[in-house]
Amino acid sequence: MKIKHYGIPGTDVSLKGRWMQELLIGNAPAELQELQGKKGLLFSKVVLDKFIEEDAKHGNSVLVTGENRSLRTFSSGEKRKALLNYLLLQEPDFLVLDNAFDSLDKTSVKALRSSLERVSVETAIIQLFNRQEDLLPFIGSILRVENQDITNLMSVSEFLEARGQTAFSAISTIPPAPNVFSEIPEALVKMNEVSVSYKEKAILKNINWEIKKADFWQLIGPNGSGKTTLLSMIYGDNPKAYGVDLYLFGSKKGSGESVWEIKKKIGYFSPSLTELFTRRNSVLEMLISGLRDSIGLYQKPSDKEVRTAKAWLKVLGIESFSGAIFTGLSELQQRIVLIGRAMIKHPALLILDEPTNALDDKSALEIISLIKLIARESETAIIFVSHRKEKGLEPKKIYQLIPTENGSIGEILPV
Ligand SMILES: Nc1ncnc2c1ncn2[C@@H]1O[C@H](COP(=O)(O)OP(=O)(O)OP(=O)(O)O)[C@@H](O)[C@H]1O
């Protein structure tokens, strides 16, 4: 009998509920009777996080044997590749892939797709996916799962429907800057021959990169090429940023302004931020806290701050959620609020670290449209990090990290 493979559009496996857990232990629903009593394994972020936790406690992760450093220090792509190989070695009857390609670069995606194609000859695959382009070619049917039940079973061609316009494409402008940062030089970031290594491993080699006011950069590079490391030199407290030829807003890093002062001029968003905000702050308070560079809101906001935040709520299309608790919003809404929060002060530089990661096509398009609106309507320079060439993003410049034996070198690509 020919093995059947299924795709399930939507977010992560934990939201797919109990039936997925039942499926993994062999209690398949009627629609998937052929998997009854079979051995299933799960590839997901939660499973990977468990291995990372185990490794942090006991060391010697089974995922990366023969390496004398912790699993945590591997790049997100490297970790995912290791987990998949480990699962495949156990020869499951079926494999549930929960967004297997998120955070994997083009080359790794290609390699993974062809190994999954080989696996699919003998092993059934159930693919949870967010982006249509991720759908594996051998998947024949799509299952819609809502409220823990399968609500629809259809063919892939029935599923592939056209996608519409976003709300942000119709908006003409954004609220103005609440304060003007004075004396910001034309060159916001300047790196001259910057090299970084961890122990004896070279990560970045002779990086020359200049980011000017109102620039719109996309930063690309394969897994482990050092994108996060490069950003942490600018935004984070990476000790490697001291003692190299790196200028932020006109002063050499470490010599002039404190990390705190530097962060005031930078807006930062990464999807992992959504997990950091656990207090019961309202959406309005979240936006206002972006004017204060604080996580929560500890003092009563001024009328002007409230007005600015309300103007942003309108642009972000979430006016009706003003008083709602942030943690109760959908993933897309949370990201929109946090991008608004990063942008509300009109920072000189806005860093967006994989803002579309793990979103479906429609949601990714919303985020892209919001970023385009910000790029068009502000003087803020943007660094957008993503493995994907996002359709319609149109950055003005691309900085690519290219791995070599002596660390990644940087190259400016034509757009
Ligand atoms: N503290 C550390 N000790 C040793 N190696 C490290 C440490 N932090 C990062 N690395 C290594 O540095 C390299 C660059 O990692 P980085 O996370 O910057 O890459 P990336 O381009 O952001 O990757 P990805 O796209 O997978 O997120 C990787 O090989 C990683 O394993």
Descriptive overview:
By secondary structure, the protein is α/β, with parallel strands linked by helices. The protein folds into two domains: 6-159, P-loop containing nucleotide triphosphate hydrolases (Rossmann fold, 3-Layer(aba) Sandwich), CATH 3.40.50.300; 168-179 and 213-240 and 254-413, Rossmann fold (3-Layer(aba) Sandwich). It contains eleven helices and 16 strands. Strands 2-3-4-1-5-6 form a six-stranded mixed beta sheet, with helices on both faces. Helix 8 crosses helix 9. The longest helix has 17 residues, at 361-377. The mean pLDDT is 85. Bound molecules: adenosine-5'-triphosphate.
Describe the main β-sheet briefly.
Answer: 6 strands, mixed
Task: Count structural domains.
Answer: 2
The string of secondary-structure elements, in order, is EHEHHEHEEEHEEEHEEHEHHHEHEEE
Look at the structure and give the CATH class of the largest domain: Alpha Beta
Shape: globular
- Can you tell me the CATH architecture of the largest domain? 3-Layer(aba) Sandwich
Q: Which ranges are low-confidence, i.e. pLDDT below 50, for 5 or more consecutive residues?
A: none
Roughly what percent helix?
A: 25-40%
| Alpha plus pi helix count | 11
Quote the beta fraction: 15-25%
The distinct ligands, each listed once, are: adenosine-5'-triphosphate
The value of Rg in angstroms is: 23 Å
Mean pLDDT across all residues, rounded? 85
Class derived from helix and strand content: alpha/beta
The CATH homology group name of the largest domain: P-loop containing nucleotide triphosphate hydrolases
Spatial sequence of strands, sheet with the most strands: 2-3-4-1-5-6
CATH topology of the largest domain: Rossmann fold
Distance between the termini: 49 Å
GO molecular function: ATP binding
Keywords: ATP-binding, Nucleotide-binding, Transport
Organism: Salegentibacter maritimus
Domain ABC transporter: 189-415
